[in-house]
Amino acid sequence: xxxxxxxxxxxxxxxxxxxxxxxxxxxxxxxxxxxxxxxxxxxxxxxxxxxxxxxxxxxxxxxxxxxxxxxxxxxxxxxxxxxxxxxxxxxxxxxxxx
Length: 98
Hints:
The protein has helices at 14-27, 32-39, 43-50, 58-67, 84-90.
């Protein structure tokens, strides 16, 4: 069964990340070799990422996102449990400190 790129919500594992990369690459009509050149990531590494057998670093993920013209959005899994603005206000240094 083939999923559409928009159906991949919540990348929560290396497998889901790999699936999203593969689907974005296919949606753009790119081969792994073409993505490799565009992202500066080796073709074997792309294969390993797409198969879900790799845990790529953020630099690699950002290179792939740029090459695929995709963006990364961070959303709490449970918004009721986490509020970024509340978290930031609790962890701000006092005024006047460096």
